[in-house]
Fold each of these.
Amino acid sequence: MNESTNISQPQIYVERTLAIIKPDAVARAVEIEDIIIRAGFSILQRRQVQLTPEQASDFYSEHFGKKIFSSLVEYMSNGPIICLLLARNQAINMWDELIGPSNTFKAQEICPDSIRAVYGQDELQNAVHGSENQICAEREIRFFFPETILEPIITGQSAKDYLAKTVNPTLLKGLTQLSKLKPADPVGWLAEWLQNNNPNKPKINIIKAPLNPT
């Protein structure tokens, strides 16, 4: 008799990280973004900005006191940059591998196909920025995309289980009502129904004080 053993699959989380296309590489942004997408990343948000020296100083505050700090602030505030919110499994490590070492010359030597090796110019003008770790990624994402929610995104079986437990029952009720009523605007009707019948909608209990307290 053969017995099958169910081995639970590990949860896979879609990690997010920040990428910056620096002033020296903005003209090649289309090419760089194409490389990013072909590497399996999703670009969730994109924003072109020009930092003031004060904003650049704030963003690179961890480098304060280093010899490169003043040059870095001047360089990053000298022209527009493109900020990208990237997502994929192990996004931080995969982005770090894709861009290569921070020194362009070292990148050209040991990672000749990396973004910095191809598009960078030197140690300072190295085409792109990447978050070093999870803590840095969260801080840097909030710096440029303050409205972003950073909870991990589940995928695979974990996502299916979540949908089956928390989303599908409510959606099924709404679709059942939709098929019975057949409204003229089914999409708008369903959207309003889901908003009104969201089981996770906070409930506020209002306690009325007595009119004539004694």
Amino acid sequence: MRWRKAMLTLGICSTLLLGACSSKEESHDNHSNHTEHTDSGDIREETSGIEQIPEFLADKSEDMQTIYVAAAKHQKLLEQIPCYCGCGESANHKNNYDCFVFENKESGAVVWDDHGTKCGVCLEIAAQAVVDFNNGKKVKEIRGAIDQQYEKGYAKPTNTPEV
């Protein structure tokens, strides 16, 4: 997949992921980690912050975990990037960020959304946007490239405001 190639240049340390995974057990023991299903079938799970990945990622590939962490760290970017998987209509998403994170709480806690775990389009868009951003591209340029790449043969984009 294209996102695998993009992952090689993301530069996210695997130690960050290992540290996040090791703290999951502690969180599970004190029941601060909770999971709920939504009407769209997506699972939402709260963790103490972006350093702690959700339980639903435990059996997923390291690449997918890395994309989730990168997405959470690039909220402002991905909120300006539409998703082309149809989630705007099926899950009421407004942008690509919504495919990974449902809510950021004032306390720093994160409510993750597992939508991205079931969708290669979501993963590809997030990975490409983050890689391009880290390579110095401007948001408008990234958005234009993604719009052009996914305008034909994909679902209607999320209703993401123009940049």
Amino acid sequence: MRIPFIGGNWKMNLSLDEAVQFVIDIKDKLPDPKNVETALAASPLFLESMLKANGSSPLHVTAENCFYKNEGAYTGEVSPKALSQMGIPYVIVGHSERRRYFNETNDIINKKVHAVLSNGMRPILCCDETMGRLETGDRIHWVVNQVTAGLKGISEKDALKVVIAYEPSWAIGTGHSASTTEAEEGCYLIRQTLADIYSDDVANQIRILYGGSVDPDNIVALMKQIDIDGILAGKSSLKSKEFLELANYQDLQNK
């Protein structure tokens, strides 16, 4: 019922030429989108060129972030309206690095979710737990709080367009992935939270991703978990060969 979603987030990496070549290298080697959806989130500087290189490929060229207003005196920000007009289908909002380095609050992130949806795109809403909260046993409250706040005022109809990404910050870029049990626990908790906010039916239709040091060695085990519908990779998405292994994880599973 929930189509697996394999996404990559390049963050502030690669050059324009590298980004375009990356798309050219992978676009004809991706799985059937009826079986697995694929996406790459890149700098706004690269998106238009990536879209042109992508053509009719099933790859979703995705934005890493946007502002919560369509226009105005907001120097350096990215307009969700402009992204929509370009043909961008997904936008990442609420990534832990945006929360940590740019002081984005739950309220700001909620506004971004509304802005993305109102412009006909789909948000990938990230939620996080910190190592401190994990060690003190407070992770459950933290994850639930970010999901609940991020979806404030979002209708059931629009909630079905949202993808949730569970990314414990202690596992992002550290090489230390959460165990499959920890990852599944977090995603299960998110699904139960969605059921509390909306209904079991809605919760069972929303895709929940895991992100945090995912690579070809652990993706198969992660994708076998009941509540993990996909992944959002960082470092492993920076090399075309490795990203293709992630995208075609079902081939790894059959080996």
Amino acid sequence: MATPLSADRLVAALKAEGVRVVEYRSWRTHNRNHVGAWGPVHGVMVHHTVTTGTDASVRLCYDGHSTLPGPLCHGVIAKDGTVHLVGHGRANHAGSGDGDVLQAVIEERALPPDNQANTDGNARFYGFECVNLGDNKDPWPAAQVEAIVRASAAICRAHGWGKKGPTSVIGHLEWQPGKIDPRGPGVSIGDIRSRVAERLRHPADWSPGGSTPEETPVHTYFERKSGVTLTPGEWYTITWDRVWAPGKGWSDRDLAQTLLKGEHLFSLDFAVRAEGLKRGQEIQLRVARNHRKPGQEWARAKSWPISSPVHDGGRLHAAHHWQGHLPGSDDNRLVAEVLVNGDSPVPIDELTASLLAWPV
């Protein structure tokens, strides 16, 4: 059970972690405490704003809009890494989410799939909105991601979270079914968690440095622009037609399936958007390792745990996070797969994957 930090303690914790802080208007007394609980708190949730521009984004998150009053978070993280504090107390950011996920956050263990919306997250999570369109094209600068890491670590350190594992920091996509944030070139919630865990092993004023190329992850982002209609009961190995890489930007691909080859540690966020689902229809996502012997075709060698969201009809955004070890040489490759269950084909109109890989 954790009592929320006071405004003074929050500012002090952020600054001690090296975060640039701007205190916006009357943020210290701006909250939704009159409509519901604030605390006990158990974790930090990361979002993207679906907006552009720091000033407009901060103003929106402070004021809210006609259907959702502000504050919409506790802090807005700009692309330059500055954290603008806009609320202290209950904020309209998390909404209702999966109680099993909350229990996993409390116990600091691996997160289960978010397939329910039965628990008030606004009472339990600090929330940071990060300025990004969330359209798979708007990149996340390194300074912004570093600020997410430091702000999250500051709160975890102040509460003593993270001693068992790094799952006190989650993405909105891991809390509420259908959410997709944060996403886009340059961000991965798995990477953020790993970096928070590393920061917590050091004093608050620690700055990472001196890493070798082998210790620095390579970040690539994959997208399937053209949709695909899936036949029920058959696993489909996704082919990708665009890839983003640091220093190179976007480039087209010839519908390649391979996400990664050779021996690596990896962290992967994989998401699909489906239209026209019937009530109770299930979509399954998984990541797999394929192996190929000389002169033979690729064959399944291993699958990581499957995410199985069930929808109540209409449109579904499904996303999940995996991390693991891809062994061997170029005879092994990492692929992403999707399957639908039911009695009719399902059109998939968006497929994305955000990959961080460390050579071993």
